[in-house]
Predict the structure.
Amino acid sequence: MEKILVEKSPALKGKVRVSGAKNAALPILAACLLGTEDIYLEEVPNLKDVTIMCDVLESLGCKVERLGEGKLIINSASLNSYKTPFELMSKMRASFLVMGPLLARLGNTETSLPGGCSIGSRPIDYHLKGFRALGAEIEEDFGNIHASADKLVGSRIYLDFPSVGATENIMTAAVLAEGETIIDNAAMEPEIVDLSNFLRKLGANVSGAGTSTIRIKGVEKLKGARHSIIPDRIEAGTFMVAAAITGGDILVENVITNHMKPIMAKLVETGCQVIEEGENVRVIAAENPKAIDIKTLPYPGFPTDMQAQFMAYMTQCKGTNVAIETVFENRFMHVEELQKMGADIKIDGRSAIITGGKPLSGAKVKASDLRAGAALILAGLVSSGKTIISDIYHIDRGYEHIEDKFRGLGANITRIEVDED
Ligand code: UD1
């Protein structure tokens, strides 16, 4: 079984280039189902989740040509199925993002309930509410969901929470619908804007992405396009925290700094220097990082996908730190693992109180989800002894060449094969 071994490392220094964003690539790949002409994608990260989404597309009859170096050509002219196989669905929750495009293109979509990171119950009621508003009928049967419509008709949909996935699924369902769809209280994440930009290149009529009201006027047909995926703000944030936690100095390249505001602000609050240099950000660690509070919120608030990595850092920020998780109800599974490494963390409902400034020591720990895995690597870099992380398939779902990138900055990190016996 593969594990990641992290040993105490010097201050990380140097440059690292951020890959394309997983959470932008996945909905864009799903949206490739909408067209019949060649779609050429660039900066697609080489990740497990991306492979699963490509497998989903192929299982539905699409052609996916991998050109290497993050380049893909997708053609969905031969789309011939609306049923997403359970084996693929159960591997990744985001496979659910094919529902909107399938409903738009074929008037039918059938799937089982999605798998993926275990960070809360993660229902899909908003997605289904959106499909119903567009005129789809939904049948649910033992975890199987079938949505169908003779014709989708635009509608006004209010989301009770600005769900990223629901916004994406409703946008893609509405692209070929008759008339206008308006999504109120839509998610405003940069990945939504990237999806909208991509859909517009295909010929869709989408406006307002990046604000809380998105308008989609249905068109009859889409064309081929070429699109480059935006940089991954969470990967960028992870390396920025790596500089901060190890007392290092890292230039993180290929960053849209506008997407990084809460992360940059919180690092500055701890005393780090954060210098914007065009498409790069340099983080110079604070000598004695100060305690901070974070509260996760929908964009432009502090991202829930950076909560675990910041918590690892907060164990080194002297004083009382507080992390409040408001987006997912069960996203503190990394706390137990950090405690095994000596972290002083108490949980009170949706808040975690981290008494920072105490030394950590290496332990055998488990990556309970993708970002929790990244947090354990960060903690391992400043722990005495060895940290051995298991269940690293979670990490591979979202970080491209993670050991190589960390090693390039001077980290003591290797992937090891461990015989469980
Ligand atoms: C996406 C991201 C994930 C990120 C999350 C929040 C992808 C592939 N994943 O996940 O990395 O952590 O946004 O930024 O882009 N909810 C409902 N009903 C629904 C849908 C959501 O109650 O129908 C709730 C969820 O349980 C959760 C909250 O809304 O508490 C936010 O979820 P959502 O924004 O939908 O996250 P995902 O799209 O699953």
